[in-house]
Specification:
3 helices; 4-stranded antiparallel sheet; alpha+beta; single chain; 4 strands; about 110 residues; about 35% helix; globular
């Protein structure tokens, strides 16, 4: 792993947001996309978490937890409501690995 060029966690968050914003209009419902557009500046978030187990089934291969992270992107809840996760994006920390798979809300 020493020879690999890795994204920092901040860079990976920015990368995930870029992917999300490029693909959101095509993959979210019109209502979810409109809600995101209205509230992204005040309530938008991205969380990097270890990949959920369902990615193994989706990808049909084992994951490398030290090199792959799941970015959860959405809107923080209001008035005690739960956060709304609009997309889960599986990404590689390695800058030259084009791994990118997304699961969209709905």
């Amino acid at each position: 792993m020493q020879d690999l060029e890795l994204w920092t966690l901040d860079e990976l968050c920015d990368h995930a947001f870029d992917i999300f914003e490029e693909l959101a209009a095509e993959n979210l419902s019109a209502l979810d996309y409109s809600m995101y557009q209205q509230h992204a500046d005040s309530r938008g978030f991205v969380d990097l978490v270890p990949p959920a187990e369902d990615w193994v089934e989706i990808m049909m291969q084992d994951l490398e937890p030290e090199l792959q992270l799941e970015a959860q992107i959405g809107l923080s809840g209001e008035d005690g409501q739960a956060d709304i996760v609009l997309a889960r994006i599986l990404l590689s920390r390695e800058k030259h690995d084009a791994l990118c798979h997304a699961q969209w809300r709905g």
